[in-house]
Amino acid sequence: MLFLRRNYNYLVILISTIAYFYIAYFFDRSNFSELLFIVLITFLGYFSLLSQKTKETSLPQLVLLGVLFRCIFLFSLPSLSDDYFRYLWDGHLLNEGLSPFLYTPKSFLGNSIEISSFFSEVFPKLNSPDYFSVYPPISQLIFWLSASASDSVFINILCLRSFVFTAELITLFFLQKTLRLLRINQKRTLLYWLNPLIIIELSGNLHTEVFMICFLSIAFYFLIKERVSISAIFWSLAICIKFLPLFFLPLVLRKIGLKKFTHFSAVTLFCTLAICLPFFLPIVKLKNLLSSLQLYFQTFEFNASLYYLFRWFGELSLGYNTIKTLGPVLSSSAALLILIFSIKKLRGWSSFFERLSIIIFIYFLFSTTVHPWYISTLVMVACLSKNMYSIIWSVLVFLSYNAYKSDFYNENLTLVFIEYIIVGAFWVSHYTIKKPLKIKWLLQE
Question: Is pTM beyond 0.90 here?
Answer without folding.
Answer: yes
